[in-house]
Task: inverse folding
């Protein structure tokens, strides 16, 4: 057994945190600043914060809110949503963000990813891939909060992101999002076998055993989850939580 990175993934919508199922039906789960404060107290490994409306609506990041959130973080924090160029990434890092997460904008061009990596280092750039299973059993990449089918295979897109300079891949299964029934092992295997950078598995975690399987069976280097860390019990009562003393 090894000590793995276990990363809460928080979804930002407006000024509140939400949780989705299969990227739909967002449910409000609380104030982001308060949630981050609690996660800081629980000494989580890292945090990922994703604005789920920014890219779809063509908005820039809310820098004021990002700075407020980052001010409560005593752990590395990554932010994604609406990032389209080096200037925006620079502004976010000045707000206190350690890593920028690039998703939708990478489909049109990966050139600015290289620019960010050249200035801040590859460790500061995360390539985010949201994938859904097709009727024929394969997977395809979707962007803009899962609303646009790019026709790309996730493993091919991951390889192009690695070549562009990302330091790791955040791989999310749209089908498993919010289901808490386990990760898409097949999807993670496809991507992790195609790249040499770390792959962070996301989408589907409900137990520590799910995380162990993602690490041992699929090649994931780290695991991320949302519902598991904001809900408790079969009725999904909102409760910020994080496992302590765990070994994955």
Result:
């Amino acid at each position: 057994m090894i000590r793995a990175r276990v990363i809460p993934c928080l979804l930002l919508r407006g000024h509140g945190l939400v949780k989705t199922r299969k990227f739909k039906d967002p449910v409000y789960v609380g104030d982001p600043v308060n949630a981050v404060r609690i996660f800081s107290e629980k000494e989580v490994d890292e945090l990922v914060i994703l604005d789920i409306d920014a890219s779809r609506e063509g908005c820039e990041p809310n820098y004021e809110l990002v700075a407020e959130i980052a001010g409560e973080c005593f752990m590395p924090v990554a932010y994604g949503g609406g990032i389209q160029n080096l200037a925006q990434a620079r502004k976010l890092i000045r707000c206190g963000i350690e890593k920028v997460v690039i998703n939708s904008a990478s489909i049109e061009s990966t050139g600015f990813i290289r620019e960010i990596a050249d200035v801040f280092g590859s460790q500061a750039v995360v390539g985010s891939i949201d994938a859904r299973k097709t009727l024929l059993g394969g997977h395809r990449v979707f962007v803009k909060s899962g609303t646009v089918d790019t026709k790309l295979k996730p493993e091919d897109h991951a390889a192009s992101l690695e070549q562009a300079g990302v330091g790791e891949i955040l791989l999310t299964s749209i089908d498993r999002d919010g289901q808490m029934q386990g990760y898409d092992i097949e999807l993670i295997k496809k991507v992790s076998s195609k790249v040499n950078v770390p792959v962070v598995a996301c989408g589907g975690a409900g137990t520590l055993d799910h995380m162990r399987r993602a690490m041992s069976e699929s090649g994931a280097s780290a695991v991320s989850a949302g519902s598991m860390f904001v809900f408790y019990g079969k009725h999904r009562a909102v409760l910020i939580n994080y496992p302590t003393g765990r070994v994955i």
Notes: The longest helix spans residues 154-164. DSSP finds ten helices and 14 strands in the chain. Residues 5-238 form a domain with the TIM Barrel fold (CATH 3.20.20.70). Residues 17 and 30 are 5 Å apart (CA to CA).
